[in-house]
Request: fold
Amino acid sequence: MKLMECVPNFSEGRDLGILDAIAGAIKSVKNVSLLDVDPGADTNRTVFTMAGEPEAVVEAAFQAIKKAAELIDMSKHTGEHPRMGATDVCPFIPISDMTMEECVEYARKLGKRVGEELGIPVYLYENAASKPEWRNLATVRSGEYEALATKAKDPAWKPDFGPQSFNAKSGATAISAREFLIAYNINLNTRDKKKAHDIALSIRESGRSARDEKGKLIRDANGEIVKTPGIFSHCKAVGWYIDGYNRAQISINLTNYKITPPHAVLDKVREMAHEMGLEVTGSELVGLIPKAAILEAGKYYLNKMNESTGIPERMIMETAIQSMGLAELSPFDLDKKVIEYAIAKTDRLATKTVIDFCDVLSTESPTPGGGSVAALCLAMSGALSAMVANLTIDKKGYEKVQDAAHKYAPMGQSIKERAIHCIDVDSDAFDIMMEAMRLPKKTDEEIQYRNQQIELGTQGAIIAPLNVLRMSLEALELVKEVAKIGNINALSDAGVAALTALAAAKAANFNILINLQSITDEDFKKKTLAEAALLIKKCEALTDAVDKDVSSRL
Reply:
């Protein structure tokens, strides 16, 4: 599922009425979660954090910017933080299944709308910047609000979107796309701030000032102090002492965790601290973290222990929590600290107990239905494949297939996780189709719009089970390989994995066929029928092969 974060900064940190109104504008948009509101009275600035489906996040950002433009008067604004607009900055951040390029396009889409509909000058910065010199926010915001009247007369400062004129009330807004910033602190068993800062100087990208053998600063030909670069790129760090914790910490901002992940920094700091006679006692995550980052950390430590990474994702993340000491200073709640979990709907079908799911399935409610059951069967198939692989890892007599078992277990878990997500996707797709059918149809325009939405909704209700059917083939291909190398004592489980995958495939196909009857797009119908028929044929052939293999060895 595509998820995007947005962190708009508004030039108001004292009037709670204004902040509540902006929050209300965000909350009015469906499929967006407002995760945090962090006001600062001294800076007179508030940072909002929201996340959700990309299109919905763009809409929520626009509504928030619009509300801020209505309520905030920049001509009367004062505060310690640099600023140039009522909405000062508005960056988009990819969370899951999103590329930076997609975020850049959403930044441009928002910028165009803000410029055209609200008449606010918009400058694109960082990854969305239209010119190299505007990648740096400090350059874009140079002179702050007070310089905007002059910039409005300078052709070099023509905004990317909106009028090149001075908007006295709203100022200007900078919109961007950037990577997720992880705020991360490493705890030391010392109260000495200098020792913590010394390590910080060594790991941070900007490094430290170079000195000669006598300790004198080294300068270049222009008289500038020469810097010795630090170990990690995309890493900012300082050492400080926290009175409440009675210890020193290395405070770190990681601006691209995909290049410099927190576990890599932690392991290096552990090594450096040990050389200084210090110990790392744990670490602390400030704010939220993308699931991918903590999963990567958990897999890193599992690999170091030569243990399977093909286990449930929460178990992988628990390994990261324990290995990194993330719960040393306070409890680490995955549902509050992992951004995907924090914004997840609480009424998902996938989170129901088996009894509750079967109970609601048995009622007159059309959802959940056969499509969700197909996804559930597929999830169980993936889980069984992972189980067989895990029962093969580190088992005597299976030394020659360890690499394969370590490979197949995570593949089974991946199928399981994606299929579990599809349980709700299928149900949601049906609900969207039904909403379209309830649209008004009194005028020709309403009828035309309703028919368009019904067609789109019905296609969505077909694409959902089609994706389950595609994954069913993937699951059966995996089962075939797992059955070959798996622990003989779990051979029957491999057979059941094949049967549940075939059940998922055929159930998904039934849902495709019944909804295709309502499709008017003949090309879509023809292509879908052809693909589904081919997938079913392949799934049946694979199931027969696994069935014969398993039956012959039982």
Q: What stands out?
A: The first strand starts at residue 3 and ends at 6. Residues 444-485 form the longest helix (42 residues).
